[in-house]
Amino acid sequence: MPTSRQLEQIVVVGAGVAGTRAAETVRQEGYDGDLTVVGAERHAPYHRPPLSKKLLTGKVHRAGIDLAPQFDFEARVLRGAAARELDMSSRKIHVRDDDQDRCLDFDGLVIASGAIPREWPEGPVPDGVLLLRTVEDCLAIRQRLGTHPRVVVVGGGFIGAEVAASCRSLGLDVVLIEKAEGLLLQALGKELAPRWTELHRQQGVDLRLAAGVDAFVGDGRVEAVQLSDGSQLPADLVVIGLGVAPATDWLADSGLHIDGGVVCDATGAAEGGTDVVAAGDVARWWHPLYEQHLHIEHWDHAGRQGEAAARTLLAGKDRAKPYDELPYFWSDQYHLKIQMLGATADYDAFEIVEGDSNEERFVAAYGRDGRTVAVVGTIPDRVYSYRDAIKSRAEFPPSRPD
Fold first, then answer.
1. CA dihedral angle for residue 260, residue 264, residue 269, residue 270, rounded to 10 degrees
2. pLDDT for 379 beyond 80
3. pTM of the predicted model, to two decimals?
């Protein structure tokens, strides 16, 4: 594929799904120059969604989550290497690799450094208080689950809810603490949060809503979680799920526009840089349909965005096509799979369009300014039927597809 600048040295920072798909795509599109992929983990790329579900419960083995390559690509791959600094003036990336400092030259850059989990803000924690982001985190938690611990999960977003569901499926006692009034409130809104809250209660989770954590109690090893009301919950294992933050520290002095991620235009070109694109959890892209910058932390979106960013890098910003695919995510909890298509940011209307939210099979729609912006459902793959309604900004509520 001809490029506008005939790039010769492309570096991809990040070896997750966004970075991997970007690296594959530049080769698939005909780029034959030098290609370097910098990955913070020592593992080959793997699927993250099973970490809170099937790998955590042992339903799949470690090898079962490896990310199968879509296309073979020739590249120098640095594993266990961390990008430390981006110098746009000299077009160099400073990398720490095996306790050595490296300097990588580039004329094209894909930023796909992902996100890092938010740690406990009050400082060091005792043994037994763990985060879940990497495969090592998952296997460490899974090993402790084998001792039949009393589990406390802090955070009622997707990671926390999925971990709680996984632990209950193993027959463990689980307490789930959430500072909001319901589970998945930010993702699903006030209309559906009670449905998921009730689901976890029905499955035996001890829910503590509108509750805060003051401290972890234990002499070297966690023994209890102290809540803001002074009460204590016995605990042998605590999993913290407080969300993630875009991995942008290494870009602090780069001159790129950083605001809740690397700010990009609709093609994925990073603002403040030349021949630099971003994709995945680290990026905030301008979405033409929603007319705002979106920061999407979902697996499917990251892979497709990585491919689009790679095409933008090769074509050049002026010739690149906007990326306007609808965000999609799913979450498996107990016997239900919830799927969402679209983005609910700033929605002002909600309606059940199929089934009943009090039952297990339903589809709900979200609207803004009289137009349909997203759908969520538990009927397998039914949300895809509403793709045209969202893409065409159909009047809200959308008509039920045939």
1. -40
2. yes
3. 0.95
